[in-house]
Design a protein that fits this description.
Mean pLDDT: 90
Number of strands: 0
Distance between the termini: 127 Å
Number of helices: 9
Helix content: 55-70%
Length: 223
């Protein structure tokens, strides 16, 4: 009897189940949500549970994407500056004079810091951060560098005003820039404590009176 050329079918093992993969997520959107949590609560008060809940991911995905809570906070600082600083600085840079720039800066700060300009937490994430005094030296340096940006921008605008003859060369621009910076930082704390937009606009008006007085004194000294 001739053997059949057909070979008996071999038993095939059941197909293996695909190896599980972490759930895909939008990294940029997750970073935005983490930024908001850090903004509202600060670094130390924000737990990993707070972050994973807000970001909609598990701890393994968070560590895989960002490395650590500290690294995530560092990215959140950059995200905050990139996403929100134009709300305060745009009209400052477009202003025709230094006084107008400062007036815009403080008025826009009053709106933004109190949440009047958008649905965002009150206060400034950078100004309110205490991470440097909580034992995180490198993060503290990042925060201090970010705070310095405010002073540097105001000082640069005043230097231009002196060069353009808008304000007297005798003006102490270091002190004047520090004054404006201090007012704006204080507005951030007031906003977090519940001050409203109108309250901070009144502060801005008083600050501009101080500006005018300082410029007038410099003009009188130059005569």
């Amino acid at each position: 009897m001739q053997k059949s050329k057909d070979k008996p079918e071999a038993d095939h093992p059941a197909p293996s189940r695909p190896r599980g993969r972490p759930r895909a997520f939008d990294r940029d959107a997750a970073l935005q949500r983490a930024t908001r949590v850090f903004w509202e609560k600060g670094f130390e008060a924000t737990s990993m549970a707070d972050l994973t809940e807000a970001m909609g991911i598990g701890s393994p995905s968070l560590y895989a994407a960002f490395g650590s809570k500290e690294a995530l906070y560092a990215e959140a600082l950059g995200c905050y500056q990139q996403s929100y600083e134009a709300m305060v600085w745009q009209r400052f840079f477009a202003a025709r004079t230094a006084r107008e720039a400062v007036a815009f800066f403080l008025a826009d700060s009053a709106a933004v810091l109190t949440g009047g300009a958008a649905d965002i937490p009150t206060g400034c994430m950078v100004t309110l951060s205490s991470v440097g005094s909580e034992g995180h030296r490198e993060l503290g340096e990042l925060v201090r560098a970010a705070r310095t940006v405010t002073f540097d921008r105001i000082r640069a605008r005043l230097e231009k005003a002196v060069a353009d003859g808008e304000i007297p060369a005798a003006t102490d621009i270091e002190a004047l820039a520090r004054f404006v910076q201090t007012v704006q930082f204080g507005m951030s704390i007031q906003a977090r404590d519940g001050a409203g937009q109108a309250d901070l606009e009144a502060v801005a008006d008083v600050a501009l009176l101080g500006w005018d007085s300082r410029i007038a004194a410099a003009e009188a000294a130059a005569e």
